[in-house]
Write a structure and sequence with these properties.
- The structure is a single chain.
- The chain is mainly beta.
- It has a domain of about 180 residues.
- About 10% of the residues lie in helices and about 25% in strands.
- The strands form five sheets. Strands 3, 4, 6, 7, 9, 10, 12, 13, 15 and 17 form a ten-stranded parallel sheet that branches.
- A hairpin with a 4-residue loop joins strand 18 and strand 19.
- The longest helix has 11 residues.
- It starts with a strand and ends in a 19-residue tail after the last strand.
- The relative contact order is 0.05.
- It comes from Providencia stuartii (strain MRSN 2154).
- It holds the Pfam family LRR_1.
- Keywords: Leucine-rich repeat, Repeat.
């Protein structure tokens, strides 16, 4: 390949002279002192990077665009050279193994782009457009959120491999992608796309919702970082499950929530109560468990239909007094808060029937709870039962287990006859 300029140069001089300050410093340990440079854009039928540098350690620098009409490959999955493209890359298919690949421009792939095994690195600053973008346990970073394609093997779980790959590229028994078959297809220029319609996980959930009678939309465990636009036009959603998605914040703007009764946001990396929920006047159940929420909004009482509120494993350090004003609240879970939590409940929650406080070390209940029938104060380091609750004559379910400091019960405890 005589289009390369061969240069012997130190790593530091190479970085400085060719403006490669973005290179990770650890690459110097593997650098063999040789730079292969291409000044102008280059167009090739195909390119196997390992044919240029079989042993690794070389820096291969394309100053402008790299255009490959068929397959661009780097087959050795254990090691390879450092490949830098300052311009754009286009190819029919791309497969990279153990090399460090840094592309500053856009990448356009007609069919498949794949990173194989965990020894290599692919770092793309620009936008990627491909039929399939696959990471096989690979360090694969794409910074442009406008990238388009079916992502497999990333945190993006919008698609499941078995739903989008042709049958011979997915092993149903092992529930794995057949990497060898995909590499073979790439080298032959074959598409791995499944015939027929490609259905995303979100669309499957929507289809299930439309076919159900309970009006529940289950979008849990899809690694969503924002609300999918596909659900904004759905009507009559009564239950919405978004649990186990790293949303960090929730925006319901544009979504039809007129019939929404229940929302599950457990394990969604939320740090604050989602304010948009305050606009859902008819909401009855909210699950915010396993988030780092530490306070509730003063406007919470506007939700006068709210009956069930789950806040276990959050970061509350004191009892949220605003709850006294949530007049129809029947079920409250505040279990397992911060170790320094001090829960003083000195007023009645007039409608409360179920109170779960397990796993909190400092609980002081000084006000009777007139409608309470279930109480869990297990694992709370309590030394006795709260006297005020002996007047909760409807109490029928009581869990005080694992309170090893509890040595006595007040005489009034005998008044709990249910």
């Amino acid at each position: 390949m005589n289009f390369f300029e061969r240069i012997n140069i130190s790593f530091s001089d190479c970085v400085k002279k060719y403006h490669l300050e973005f290179l990770p410093s650890y690459l110097e340990d593997y650098y063999n002192g040789r730079l292969l440079r291409v000044k102008e854009s280059v167009t090739l039928d195909s390119l196997e990077i390992d044919d240029i540098d079989e042993m690794g350690g070389t820096i291969i620098l394309f100053e402008k665009d790299l255009i490959i009409e068929n397959a661009l490959t780097q087959s050795n999955v254990d090691y390879g050279p450092t490949v830098i493209v300052k311009g754009n890359v286009s190819a029919k298919n791309i497969a990279f193994g153990g090399a460090c690949i840094i592309i500053k421009g856009d990448v356009t792939v007609e069919q498949t782009m794949i990173g194989i095994y965990n020894h290599g690195v692919i770092n793309i600053t620009g936008k990627v457009t491909a039929e399939y973008i696959i990471s096989d346990d690979h360090c694969f970073s794409i910074y442009d959120k406008g990238s388009k394609g079916i992502f497999l093997g990333f945190q993006d779980l919008r698609y499941h491999a078995k739903d989008v790959l042709s049958g011979k590229y997915y092993d149903d028994a092992e529930e794995n992608i057949k990497i060898d078959k995909i590499i073979e297809a790439i080298k032959k220029g074959n598409s791995i796309k499944k015939n027929g319609n490609i259905v995303s996980q979100v669309q499957k959930a929507i289809d299930k919702f439309k076919a159900s009678k309970n009006a529940k939309l289950n979008l849990s465990n899809l690694n969503l970082t924002e609300m999918p636009e596909e659900i904004f036009q759905l009507e009559n959603i009564k239950e919405l499950d978004l649990s186990n998605n790293p949303l960090k914040e929730l925006s319901l703007k544009g979504m039809q929530t007129d019939h929404l009764k229940s929302i599950n946001l457990a394990c969604c990396s939320l740090t604050e109560f989602p304010i948009d929920i305050l606009n859902i006047n008819q909401i009855e159940s909210i699950d915010l468990s396993f988030n780092t929420i530490s306070s509730l909004p003063e406007e919470l009482p506007v939700l006068n239909q709210l009956k069930k509120l789950l806040l276990s494993h959050c970061n509350f350090t004191e009892f949220p007094c605003i709850l006294y004003q949530v007049v129809n609240l029947e079920y409250l879970d505040l279990g397992f808060q911060d170790e320094e939590t001090l829960f003083l409940i000195d007023k009645a929650l007039q409608s409360l029937k179920v109170l779960l406080l397990s796993g909190n070390a400092n609980i002081n209940i000084t006000a009777p709870q007139p409608k309470l029938y279930e109480l869990n104060i297990s694992h709370c380091l309590m030394d006795t039962f709260p006297i005020a609750l002996t007047k909760s004559t409807h109490l029928t379910h009581l869990d005080m287990s694992y309170n090893h400091k509890m040595r006595w019960l007040p005489d009034e405890f005998s008044e709990l006859k249910n």
